[in-house]
Specification:
Layout lengths: L3 H6 L1 H9 L6 H40 L3 H36 L19 E6 L12 H7 L3 E2 H7 L6 E2 L2 H20 L3 E3 L4 E2 L2 H6 L11 E3 L2 H6 L6 E4 L4 H5 L6 E2 L6 E10 L18 E11 L4 H18 L4 E5 L11 E9 L4 E10 L3 H6 L2 E2 L8 E2 L1 E9 H11 L7 E2 L2 H4 L7 E2 L11
Parallel strand pairs: 4-9, 8-14
Antiparallel strand pairs: 1-11, 2-3, 5-7, 6-7, 9-10, 10-16, 11-12, 12-13, 13-16, 14-15, 17-18
The protein binds one RNA strand of 93 nucleotides through helix 3 and helix 4.
Length: 448
RNA sequence: GGAGAGGUGGCCGAGUGGUUGAAGGCGGCAGUCUCGAAAACUGUUAUGCGGGUUUCCCCCGCAUCGGGGGUUCGAAUCCCCCCCUCUCCGCCA
């Protein structure tokens, strides 16, 4: 959420900055500017009326005590008139405020000045680590490898849940666990994060806080209480969202709170499954593990003082890179341009890994500084000193990492000509010392 | 799922219709005292929005006692709905 005062102070500047993210925002900013002025005018009027009422009511109390009923009754009439007027002003005020708030909620964050302006073509490759490389033989892609090695049963997932889901089987399932544990251990042990296991279903307020709602409602799975219960109890527990990323529950951990001095920075790491609708993506884009409805991810979240967030973005991105280095995967760091960033972000780095057979760079991490955009929405503040005024914290998140595309690169890049796949050193101790993925002696039949 | 109890400021806790945004205590901060500290004493100590002044200094107003709605000239206080917490029983991984 942008600060309404910023729009009040310099609407043209806000319009210019938002124009780099899309052309639909100028009108909204103008409208908010107008509503803000009207709202304040209405508030002054309303506050004045309420003040009058308050004073008169006190006076009535005094008159009643003094036995002066006739005068009291006369004043009551006056207050009733004031109330009628106030009710009308209040209705007007509420209508303006509702519109202003809902418009403000659909404006994205302002991009940081260091972010390149433009669309996909303006992406900047900041850093490359490792070679794109190629295989000395004709390799298989991850779907064929995962199937041949009895790691992932795609047809079974289709039967049970539909496309976009997977059954990880045997070493495939172990590989998932190993990757999750490796990542968690690195971030906890080497990078000083605290692990958190958040709820996987959240109330609508949570994705509002992080910025998925209201604009991107259609990208999350929505879970409803059984109809019978709702009829029985219309107001109770209306709905939940399945978390699209751990960022949603973890960032909302301190929703509505004022953090005492010495609390910051708060560094949290969480593993969760992530659920995404990903509507409209089929074909090559979605083959195998490229784009799925449910996947595993380890996520880093930092809450810090405003002056520290720039530094944390660099650090967190580096921490995600560390995992790729341990996995010995070639990667590059990309600075996203204004038109490519997610709604809440002021600055984002993506990490892409190279998958040799697919011949593509695949996004496995996204590290974003959201500044005070999310903390305003989720109302998370802190005090520098015991008696200092509360300030909004800065919030950052970074995937560290999302598993499916890591698995793609791991399988494709590490395959040998005999069809087996080597396990990187760092991962072996998480996989019972297994050095190579080979077809099991008695595979679980994958049946079409 | 059944029965009961309860939600007030950073914390504890008073308050059942009229200067109560809220007594009292604890904690925090500042000061006095002290070589210093403790103790004691004094003062201060919620958040948001708005207006004025003006720029971070103050003044003023409004709202907020779990959330929402209602009654009333006036609600922390009365009524209704919801949420949450705790205790006991039941059920269950």
């Amino acid at each position: 959420m942008l600060d309404r005062k910023k729009i009040r102070d310099d609407p043209e500047l806000i319009k210019a900055k938002l124009a780099t993210r899309g052309d639909e925002y100028a009108d909204i900013v103008d409208r908010i500017f107008q509503l803000d002025a009207d709202e304040r005018k209405a508030q002054v009027e309303l506050d004045g009326l309420r003040r009058e009422r308050k004073e008169l009511s006190k006076e009535i109390g005094r008159l009643m005590k003094g036995g002066n009923e006739a005068q009291a009754e006369a004043k009551k009439k006056t207050v009733k008139d004031i109330n009628e007027k106030a009710a009308a002003v209040e209705e007007h005020f509420n209508a303006i405020q509702d519109e202003r708030v809902s418009l403000l909620a659909i404006l994205p964050n302002l991009p940081d000045d260091s972010v390149p302006v433009g669309g996909e073509e303006a992406r900047q490759i900041i850093k490359e680590h490792g070679e794109e490389g190629s295989l000395a033989f004709e390799g298989n892609d991850h779907v064929d490898l995962a199937t041949a090695l009895n790691l992932i049963d795609f047809p079974a997932a289709g039967r049970v849940s539909g496309s976009g889901f997977q059954f990880y089987v045997g070493l495939g399932a172990e590989l998932q666990r190993a990757l999750i544990n490796l990542m968690l251990d690195i971030h906890i042990g080497e990078h000083g994060y605290r692990e958190m296991r958040p709820p996987f279903m959240v109330k609508p307020e949570a994705p509002f806080g992080t910025g998925q709602l209201p604009k991107f409602k259609e990208e999350m799975y929505h879970v409803f209480t059984p109809l019978e219960q709702v009829e029985h109890d219309p107001a109770g527990h209306p709905d939940y969202y399945l978390v699209p990323t751990a960022e949603v529950p973890v960032c909302n951990y301190y929703r509505g709170c004022i953090l005492p001095p010495e609390t910051l920075p708060v560094k949290l790491v969480a593993y969760t499954p992530c659920w995404r609708v990903e509507a409209g993506h089929y074909g090559h884009e979605a083959r195998g593990l490229r784009r799925v409805h449910e996947f595993d991810k380890v996520e880093l979240v930092v809450l810090c003082a405003p002056e520290e967030s720039d530094g944390f973005l660099e650090r967190m991105t580096g921490e995600a890179e560390r995992v790729l280095e341990l996995l010995e995967l070639p990667y590059r760091r990309v600075l996203l341009p204004t038109g490519d960033m997610t709604f809440a972000s002021a600055k984002t780095y993506d990490l892409d890994v190279f998958a040799v057979v697919s011949g593509e760079w695949l996004e496995v991490s996204s590290a974003s500084n959201t500044g005070d955009f999310q903390s305003r929405r989720a109302n998370i503040r802190f005090r520098r000193d015991a008696n200092a005024k509360p300030e909004f914290v800065h919030m950052l998140n970074a995937s560290g990492l999302a598993l499916p595309r890591v698995v793609i690169a791991l399988l494709e890049n590490n395959q040998l000509e005999d069809g087996t796949v080597t396990v990187p050193d760092a991962l072996q101790k998480y996989m019972r010392g297994i050095e190579r993925l080979t077809p099991p002696e008695n595979p679980l039949p994958f049946l079409d």
